[in-house]
Amino acid sequence: MAMNRIQFQPGLSMPAFLKLYGTDAQCAVALEQARWPVGFHCPRCDGAAYTRVRGRTHPLFQCQACRHQTSLIAGTVMQGTKLPLSVWFLAIYLISQAKTGLSALALMRQLGVSYPTA
Ligand SMILES: [Zn+2]
């Protein structure tokens, strides 16, 4: 019987996903590389020099030229949330892997978050 190449295309297993994006630090690095593939650029003045502001839920970058502060999650679906990046990434993984969709209730149970968060 012929194999459907779409159905049998390689994917990312849960263990492989957790190895790549299991921690907040791994997710922050991945998100930073996705947002600024050639390095940080200030959204206000396009400056490339920045300082990392620590002690925040999500990484914050301050432009050294105009002092504008940009969160790593600003302008993304994650903007304004305090949910750890690793939980966000896991949610995105679970939704992308669910062939027939994923209900908010199922997501709530799997992530251990509240219903409104899910
Ligand atoms: Zn700037």
Question: How is this structure best described in words?
Answer:
The protein has helices spanning 14-21, 24-35, 85-97, 104-111, and strands at 50-53, 60-63, 69-71. With 118 residues, it is of the alpha+beta class. The chain is globular, with a radius of gyration of 18 Å. The chain is 35% helix and 9% strand. Strand 1 (50-53) and strand 2 (60-63) form a beta hairpin. It starts with 13 loop residues before the first helix and ends in a 7-residue tail after the last helix. The protein has one domain (14-111). It has a 3-stranded antiparallel beta sheet, with no helix packed on it. The model has no long low-confidence stretch (mean pLDDT 92). Zinc ion (ZN) binds at residues 42, 44-45, 47, 63, 65-66, 68. The site of zinc ion has 8 residues, from loops.
Provide a concise account of the structure shown:
This protein has 118 residues and is of the alpha+beta class. The chain contains 4 helices and 3 strands; from the N terminus they run H-H-E-E-E-H-H.
Instruction: Give me the strand/helix succession.
Output: HHEEEHH
**Strand residue percentage:** 5-15%
Structural class: alpha+beta
- Helix count equals 4
Percent range of helical residues: 25-40%
Q: Give the names of the bound compounds.
A: zinc ion
* Nearest-integer average pLDDT: 92
- Give start-end ranges of low-pLDDT stretches: none
- Number-wise, the strands total 3
3D shape? globular
What profile does the largest beta sheet have? 3 strands, antiparallel
What's the end-to-end separation, in Å?
Answer: 41 Å
User: Domains counted in the coordinates: how many?
Assistant: 1
Strand arrangement in the largest pleated sheet: 1-2-3
Radius of gyration: 18 Å
